[in-house]
Specification:
By secondary structure, the chain is an alpha/beta fold. Strands 1, 2, 3, 4, 5 and 6 form a 6-stranded mixed β-sheet that branches. Helix 1 runs parallel beside helix 2. The longest helix has 10 residues.
Length: 111
């Protein structure tokens, strides 16, 4: 499974469309086996969902995301987990440990 976290430095970005990069973790049997940081290419959300799907991303963890952007990811088959905050590493560990529940909240800002 590949988990992408919208990030600003070491922290979860408060908004998907304005993040500086995506911290991408490959997880096998509950353990991280690979990491890659991908800069935000400043592409429209309609292009980012298929791009992340091509990279085999299964889950996107974000602070918040606009409703139309979330729809692009839903249609691409990528699970969107909203409401994450704090460090990227803590968000990843919370998700893997079953302690990060999506708030399902969307924001008024869309990319």
């Amino acid at each position: 499974m590949i988990i992408a976290i919208a990030s600003d430095g070491l922290n979860v970005s408060c908004h998907f469309g304005r993040c500086s990069s995506y911290s991408c973790y490959t997880v096998e049997d509950g353990a991280v086996v690979a990491f890659q940081n991908m800069p935000n290419l400043s592409r429209p959300c309609s292009e980012m969902a298929p791009l992340l799907r091509e990279l085999s991303v299964d889950v996107l963890i974000v602070g918040s995301i606009g409703s139309s952007a979330k729809g692009f990811f839903d249609r691409a088959g990528i699970t969107v987990v909203t409401g994450a905050e704090g460090t990227v590493r803590d968000a990843l560990e919370d998700y893997l440990g079953g302690r990060l529940d999506s708030t399902d909240a969307v924001c008024a800002i869309d990319c």
